[in-house]
ABC transporter ATP-binding protein
Amino acid sequence: MMKNVVEVHDLVVVRGAREVLPGISLDVPAGVTGLLGPSGCGKTTLLRSLVGAQRVRSGSVEVLGEPAGSKALRTRIGYVTQAASVYDDLTVAENLAFFARVLGVGSDAAGAAVEAVGLADHRSQVVGRLSGGQRSRVSLAVALLGTPDLLVLDEPTVGLDPVLRRDLWELFHRIADGGAAVLVSSHVMDEAERCHRLLLMREGRIIADGSPDEIRERTGAPDIEGAFLHLVGAA
Ligand SMILES: Nc1ncnc2c1ncn2[C@@H]1O[C@H](COP(=O)(O)OP(=O)(O)OP(=O)(O)O)[C@@H](O)[C@H]1O
C-alpha cells in the first residue's frame, strides 16, 4: 500500500496566546482530500505547518517522507494561500516566467501550467486587470510549476461563481489523477461531496475522517453539514 503523502503526529501550534492546534494527528493519502471546518478552527495554521511556514511547538509533520520545511520539498509542494501571491503589474506569462526562474524550472513548465488552469488565452494580460477568479488561477498556475506531488490549497474557491468553482474542482481532480495528492481547505460544506476523502476539523482537532459516504453513514446524516453538526453535538 502507498505510504501517506502527509503524516502529522501530536502537532502543537501556539499563535499569540492561543494553542491553536492542541496536539492534532492526521494523514493525507493520494487523491483529493478536503479539510473542512468553521472559520478560525485552525485550517490555515495546519496548512502552514505542512508547507514549513509555521513555527510549531511540538509534534512531527512529515511530507513525502521528509520533515516539513525540508529543502528537498521545495519543488515537490505547491501552496496557494488565500491571498493571491502574484504580481498585479506583470502579465500572466511574465509572472509565470519569473516564478519558473525562482524555482529553477524550464519555460515549458510555465506554458504547461498556464494551459492547465485554462488561462492560455489570457497569457499576455496584466494580472491586475483579470477577474478575481482568473487571478486565483494565476496563483494556482504558479503552484503547479514544480509539478508538485502535494498541492495545498487554502480556500481556493472562496468568492468564485458556481461555474468557476466546478471548473476548479475538475482541475483538482485532473491533478490528482496525474498522481499528486491535493489537499483543499474549505468552510463550505457542500464542497465536501467533491472530495475522495474528508478531514472534518473543529477547534484545532480532527473530529472525523473518511470518504463522504463513510462519514454520512457513520452519523446517519443526509449530508456532510448534517454529519458535522451531529459530530459537534455528540462531542
Ligand atoms: N498571527 C496570529 N497571531 C495570533 N493568533 C492567530 C494568528 N493567526 C491566526 N490566529 C488565530 O488562530 C486561530 C486559527 O486561525 P486559522 O487562520 O488557522 O483558522 P482557519 O480555520 O484557517 O480560519 P478561516 O477559515 O477563517 O481562514 C484563530 O483563532 C485565529 O484568531
